[in-house]
């Protein structure tokens, strides 16, 4: 208990230090002495730690030495911006974020191997294929009798062209972005018609209910906070919800825009088609930032490419009896298992959140197919395990 408290305190302090420094930019291409010291200290701690993060694995001494003096041309971002979350949170799975789009190039020696490993072999010579949504209607309902899947959700992330990511956004940028995004979402029509609710001034009860119902993002994610993504919170943040509450848009949380479609049951194709319709409608009003090689640009390297995460809340009681076997099976299908309230959360009532792991190297349609075939495989395995 005491040890736990001590650890929490240390983490909090570390988080605070990193944020102090992260707010300081390098001056004209030179990394400040204070930033450098912070980086050296954090790097040493991470290297000595038992962290299993991809950051720790790929930030070798050689790469650290090569990158620590570099800055991005437009925003003067440093390596510290990229690694501070993983340095503060040794329990990160990845631990790396891009403060601005140029960081993916300037710090490519670190981003490339992390991207390659996370997205299961997207090499630095590979290129994200052109966007191809296809038709979700090609896929049958994964659970027509409602035995396993509680709900299905598909989301993607988008960055608005001309703006950096969270750590480099000014308060004015947040407000400007919000006003552009709000303008675009509130002009949607038909099934997409809805209401934008800014976080600023939102009633606490309403906010808590929206989080509880899995519509709204949680506040105070320590991984994001130490990456410099919670500055000026809640300014510029908000959520758009259509009237059927099955289509939503997050504004300025981890990414500038998150476009989400969700509903009860296992009709993945239908949920996907609704998200695609929304993305296409918004793309007519906003210019999204897409890179030739990396695809749609996002703050976290895990979301590049298609930026699509399709997930189901699913009950697989027999498979879940053996978590190690379950993990192996999920890996085989390139699926990721999370807790019920999203990332870094526990599973409640035997319900797990299972999603596609990779988002790159395949088209949008192929990503959904990979998810569809994987979940179908898991359900078949569950039925076999039950009758065994
Ligand atoms: N930085 C966190 C970690 O490494 C989250 C990584 C992926 N999730 C995300 N929301 N971007 O564990």
Give your account of this protein's structure:
The protein is 39% helix and 14% strand. Helix 1 runs antiparallel to helix 5 and helix 2 (33-48) packs parallel to helix 5. It is α+β, with helices and mostly antiparallel strands and 388 residues long. The strands form two sheets. The chain has an eight-stranded antiparallel sheet. It has helices at 2-22, 33-48, 54-58, 61-67, 79-88, 103-106, 108-118, 171-186, 204-212, 222-225, 268-283, 323-332, 364-387; strands spanning 149-158, 194-198, 238-242, 247-251, 257-264, 290-291, 295-296, 309-315, 335-338, 351-356. Strand 4 (247-251) and strand 5 form a beta hairpin. It is built from 13 helices and ten strands. The structure holds arginine. Arginine is lined by residues 85, 92-95, 223, 254, 300, 302-303, 343. One of its GO terms (cellular component) is cytosol. Belongs to the ATP:guanido phosphotransferase family. ATP binds at residues 151-155, 214, 258, 309-313, 338-343. Keywords: ATP-binding, Kinase, Nucleotide-binding, Transferase.
């Amino acid at each position: 208990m005491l040890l736990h408290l001590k650890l929490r305190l240390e983490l909090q302090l570390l988080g605070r230090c990193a944020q102090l420094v992260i707010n300081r930019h390098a001056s004209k291409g030179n990394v400040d002495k204070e930033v450098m010291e912070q980086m050296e200290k954090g790097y040493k701690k991470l290297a000595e730690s038992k962290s299993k993060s991809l950051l720790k694995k790929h930030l070798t001494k050689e790469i650290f030495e090569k990158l620590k003096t570099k800055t991005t041309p437009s925003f003067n971002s440093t390596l510290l911006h990229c690694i501070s979350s993983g340095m503060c949170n040794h329990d990160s799975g990845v631990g790396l974020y891009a403060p601005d789009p140029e960081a993916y190039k300037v710090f490519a020696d670190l981003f490339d191997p992390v991207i390659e490993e996370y997205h299961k072999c997207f090499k630095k010579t590979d290129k994200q294929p052109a966007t191809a949504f296809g038709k979700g209607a090609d896929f049958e309902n994964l659970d027509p009798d409602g035995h396993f899947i509680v709900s299905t959700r598909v989301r993607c992330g988008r960055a608005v062209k001309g703006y950096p990511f969270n750590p480099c956004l000014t308060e004015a940028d947040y407000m400007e972005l919000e006003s552009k995004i709000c303008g675009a979402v509130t002009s949607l029509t038909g099934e997409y018609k809805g209401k934008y609710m800014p976080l600023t001034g939102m009633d606490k009860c309403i906010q808590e209910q929206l989080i509880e119902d899995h519509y709204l993002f949680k506040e105070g994610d320590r991984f994001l906070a130490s990456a410099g993504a919670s500055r000026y919170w809640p300014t510029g943040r908000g959520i758009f919800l259509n009237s059927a509450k099955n289509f939503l848009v997050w504004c300025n949380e981890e990414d500038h825009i998150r476009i989400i479609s969700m509903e009860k049951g296992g009709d993945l194709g239908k949920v996907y088609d609704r998200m695609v319709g929304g993305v296409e409608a918004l793309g007519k009003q906003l210019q999204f930032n897409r890179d030739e090689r990396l695809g749609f640009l996002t703050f976290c390297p895990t979301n590049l490419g298609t930026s699509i995460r399709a997930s189901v809340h699913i009950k697989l009681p027999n498979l879940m009896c053996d978590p190690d076997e379950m993990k192996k099976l999920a890996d085989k299908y390139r699926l990721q298992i999370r807790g019920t309230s999203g990332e870094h959360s526990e599973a409640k009532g035997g319900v797990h959140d299972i999603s596609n792991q990779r988002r790159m190297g395949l088209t949008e349609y192929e990503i959904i197919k990979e998810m569809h075939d994987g979940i179908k495989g898991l359900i078949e395995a569950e039925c076999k395990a039950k009758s065994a």
